[in-house]
Amino acid sequence: MERRIPSYIAEILEHNNVNTKEIKAMCYGDLDEDERICDIYYLLDDRFIHIVHGMAEIKPVKRSAKRITTEFTFISYKTLLVEDIKELKVERLISTTRLIGEIEDDMLLIGTFSLGYTKRLEIFTKAFSCVKEGKPLDTKIPDDDTCCPKCGIRYPEEGIKICPNCSNKLSVSARLFGFFKDYWKKVIVIVLVMLIGTAFNLVSPYVGKKLFFDEVLTEGGSMYAMVLAVVAVIFTVKLIGTLLGVLYSYVLATIIPWIVYDIKMKIFTAMQRLSTSYYTSKQTGALMTRVNRDSNNIYWFFVDGLPYVIVNSLTFIGITSVMIWMNWKLAIVTVLAIPLVIVVYRFMWKFFRNFHHRIWVHDSNLSSLVSDTLNGQRVIKAFAKEDVELSRFDEHSDNLSGAEVKLANAENTTFPLV
User: What separation in angstroms does the CA of 160 have from each of 148, 281, 282?
Assistant: First the structure.
């Protein structure tokens, strides 16, 4: 059996003297016999079909919206003998699916399901046939868990079991950097300009402050009263640093747009190879957001994110080295504050990531609404639903703007305080 039994179902089975290791297959149902919403688990072993009926409630763990747990309210438990059932059949209706058991000359309604569970039901009936005939179970039971089994965080997308918390971020970064291979000459120029610019950033404070105040304006200094010459040196250093910054920005701006173009083309090309079921299970706006917004985020990551991380890291190393050279005791006192800053920024990263995720969701919902509305204008006008669509657009647009305002207020409050 490929999928695991939920712990709360396993406890009920063990309480009824059922060995969970002997379970061959399992199927989940969301409706009872009267088509009321509930949670029913159908579990198959060599002798019985075990039916556990209850209501599951999803609740956050430790006041976190990401880590969740399931509280199951038990209602009933019953079994059906495998030897009494000749055959299991799946009967599709207009809006539901039924699991029917043939017992002698009669038909027994075993369970009612939403149409989305039809495929799982068919797999379950195949597993029943294998058990009934004594054949080895060769069917694979799909795992429809919504949370990562390693860390417990919900998957961002239904049906795609990729956990952003447990995924290998280095491999993703390596794939992104792979787009630079066709621009390696300009990349070398960027790195060189970045290193030289960082060196000038380190020299500039020394020339503009320490040298100017200690050696030029202080009596007895080695360059006392040579104000004009030192000012010219300061101006030259600033000018060279500015020119290097312009060159760096120019080269970067000529590379990154083409890299983003390559990324968009690869995303769109890969989407053309996906199945029809993939598109039917996804919103149009979410797919549009992947092609446009996500690729633009990568653009700003390479333009505003990664370069400044590299420059600031090199600057930090250089400034720390100079501080230790000048006064190692004062440098140690200054560096002691760094762990606190790191802890605060790690907390802020998780805090702001929730804001960015909300914006992404609201943006994809708004894009889906606009796409559906524009494509269905004839239907909207035929039924005079313009005001209804305007109200829907106003709601989604308000949600997006509200999420962006919350992010802006949080950033403009948190960063100045830090």
Answer: 11, 11, 11
